[in-house]
Amino acid sequence: MSLSIELNQGHISPLGANVVDSGVNFAVYAPFAKQLYVCLFDASGHTEVLKLAMNNNEGGIWSLYISPLASGTLYGYRAEGDYQPKKGLFFNSQKLLIDPYAKDLFGEFTWSERHYGQMPIGTFSAVNNAIDMPKSKVTELQPYKGKKPAHGWSKTVIYECHVKGATARHPSIPSQLQGTYLGLSHASFIEHLRKLGVTTLELLPVHSFISEQFLTAKGLQNYWGYNSLNFFTPHKDYLVNGEVAEFQQMVTKLHEADIEVILDVVYNHTAEAGSDGPILSWRGLNNLGYYRSINNNPEVYINDTGCGNTLNIDDPYTLKMVLDSLRYWVEVMGVDGFRFDLATILGRTPHGFSQTHSFLQAINQDPVLSQVKLIAEPWDIGPGGYQLGAFPAPWREWNDKYRDVVRRFWQGEGNMLPELAKRLHGSFDLFEHNLRGPLNSINFITSHDGFTLTDLVSYEQKHNEANGEQNRDGHSANYSFNCGFEGFTDDVEITKLRLQQQKNLLLTLLLSKGVPMLSAGSEMGHSQGGNNNAYCQNNRTSWLAWKDSQRQHSLTRFIDDVLSIRKEHNVFKHSVFLHDSDNRFCVDWYSEESKTMEESDWHDGSKQFLMYSLRDLQAKTALLIILNASKVKVKCQLPVSNGLSTWSLAISSVDQAMIKSTDEFEVAAQSSWVFTANLEDECHG
């Protein structure tokens, strides 16, 4: 690195490190600091070669232009100021800070006492932490040029997966690509997604993250990635050659295959944890702005996330950082949307959640972000944190009520029919009140968090001992069932029932109104051995076990078959809720005797059988769906009125299902069935 350099004031926008002509402009927001420095490092990242004072500008932004300087330069910030935790000030010039706007990082993060502002507690730490810190890296990426699929919500089928876990054991993917971004864009994985009928890949967190210190002390890692170190940099463990452009390459390949990419993003907290946590980036620059704290007691963080800190989206520059990050991933990295972890945080004011929060308004008016897919996980652990159904258009929401009701029905619980019907038809009670429709509901049975689909029908208790928390972590209310034996068994009848129940759950999911989401491995019987909180299992517990036979797994074929039925019927694409006044679609509910369901039928708590038809008067087609969660066979007559032709069996969860007559047959215990028919005459509900 040449020491013959020229310095000038620099520009306050854009924030971060940006190549301009023959140099680099550095800009960082630190309104309460007394002095900011850019620290430049040699190519190894080990030696700090220059420490240059930045210039203070109006509004609290510090800037410096350095020339000559080029892309690839390694740097960090140091901030001088008051270190008074009781006042919410954590300035300590001995702590090298990651640029909140860094587009690339170099080197590994290592836990040590050097990262803490006080060590031991109560004693100011004057120890330099640079040796244990990744360095920010000046990076130039061109805006994304590929053509995006832009699937409408009515056609969207989401596949939620982990970048590493999806391909780490895939035998057809070269070993150097397994568990990477480029592994996800390999032809073998893309072929699998297309065979399933997936339109949209939802990736667990890909922002740079680190493992919590309590995990590393136990020899474990944060596998899921909900512990962000930076909001602009792709997590580098998923790169092949260390080049962040590989993420763009992955997106390009998936888009060429007509598959969208959406990211699970964590803008609710950071890896700096509680006020006694490490000083890594945001805390050392503007703690009072980036994090929520108790009024008049800034040393105490508000912890609505359960992770020690809560990002303060009310602060204008924190809001700006989140919006800038989102736009970067869309415009430069090419992604198609986002699923927001603990999204209630993003709509919180000091008085609670608000549909008109500045973040939600900013998204809605943003010409870029308002056009992408936006999915909320509509809860956090703070006061009034459960906000399912409260987000405004155009947001979609994870519908955990759907998940739990469907699980409880197939578990065999009574008194489920009225609520099950609501969930099957898009949860109007949750979304219609604020002018949204069934496609605002993201329906799912399983996700990364909780039992896998196979474990849902194989375990009645969680088995999380490997997490090192004496099985205290993870959900206890799983509504799971083991079909007669806890865990793995080679009993043929139990194994057969488990497969049948998985098909029941999948059929219900894929033929419900709303947007279906599959969790990775549901199509191949993936098991985590009963671990329903495998966030720290970066091993074969979590990695999908690909085998030649599993690429033709009966569940893979079943999903494809059911999705084919879904795609053929426009009722699932209908963007508004069905009411009696609808002049195209009719829904009719029947008893086992093919009679219209009466009020007494709906409230008969012993009934575990539901039959209903969906008729399309324009296309002159009809679907009949039968769900029998009871443990006994049910004699059933199929409806023959309303101008229907003879029903034809389309699919069933019962292997080699055969019926001699559609007039009357026995619906097998714990089974699901779909029939199709044409409408011979014009009919109305």
UniProtKB/TrEMBL annotation:
Transmembrane residue ranges: none
All copies of domain Glycosyl hydrolase family 13 catalytic, residue ranges: 156-566
MF annotations from Gene Ontology: limit dextrin alpha-1,6-maltotetraose-hydrolase activity
Keyword Hydrolase attributed: yes
Signal sequence range: none
Pfam families registered for this protein in UniProt: Alpha-amylase, CBM_48
Catalytic EC class: hydrolase
UniProt EC number: 3.2.1.196
InterPro entries: GH, GH13_cat_dom, GlgX_Isoamylase_N_E_set, Glyco_hydro_13_N, Glyco_hydro_b, Glycogen_debranch_GlgX, Ig-like_fold, Ig_E-set
Key words, A-Z: Glycosidase, Hydrolase
Family from the record: Belongs to the glycosyl hydrolase 13 family.
Protein name: Glycogen debranching protein GlgX
Organism of this sequence: Pseudoalteromonas neustonica
Lineage: Bacteria, Pseudomonadati, Pseudomonadota, Gammaproteobacteria, Alteromonadales
